[in-house]
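Aim 2 progress update. The chain analyzed this quarter is reproduced below.
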Amino acid sequence: MGVNLSLSLGKHFKPGPGMRAAIVFLGLSLSACVTQQESVFDSNPSEEDALKARVELARSYIGEGNWEDAKRNLKLAQEIDPKSPEVAEAFALVYERTGEYELAEESFKRALSLQRDFSRARNNYAAFLYSQGAQAISRGRTEEGQQRMQQAEEQLIIVVRDTLYDARPRAFINLGLVQVQLGKDDEAREAFSRALAMDRGNNLALLELAHIEYRAGNYTQSDRYLENYRRFRRQQSARALWLGIRVARQLEDRDAEASYTLALRNLYPQSAEYRAYQQAVENGEL
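Predicted structure tokens:
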């Protein structure tokens, strides 16, 4: 997949409240509570079983936000197998969530050095890079943020090439989201379309494609994507309703515009999208 990584973020990147589509973490399925008791280790399991149990227990603690017990179990797992990519990835997730970003990046890189085809870890590393880029840009460090976003894109291009990765459709979504932030709408359109081909009801892909077509001036196509989005999403998001208002205005569909406006006002009166709508009215743009 050929992409130009030299493009600037420019006006396409909108950090903070305006950046509503966050990259999706596809890593560990974290339990909300610890259901596995540490007493399971009293039965002298094999090293392989003990390693698996320790990592699973650590995942449960991560789900609870219990970082110390998560780290303790991961350290015990690391003693069993110092070269486990699963352990390195789990450490990375703990460090990221506790704000130890340098250690998180080191652990992600270690996981990938131990297993280069570890697509889940690579996707999570891309999510980490995306988050770091967003934070840097929101703080005025645009060049650093752009570099992080480009690194995220590079990692995701590798991930989506893994045809056996079971979360590949969502990885294409992540790639598209990064490319949107880089101002690469043509590449993002391809990524979202690939995701949609694998999962026809993916409402995130449908909404992002609607936005891309709107920016390209293809209002009828944007409206079609919005219509499909509504089929799979019972309650539309504020972002979708605000886009619907603008698309309906371009198509001169006053009934649809009024319907979208009423829904946005009633469902999301405190949202950034409703404030944007009010500002557009005040400025005579609507």
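The mean pLDDT is 88. The domain at 202-286 is CATH 1.25.40.10 (Serine Threonine Protein Phosphatase 5, Tetratricopeptide repeat). These observations will guide the mutagenesis experiments scheduled for the next reporting period.
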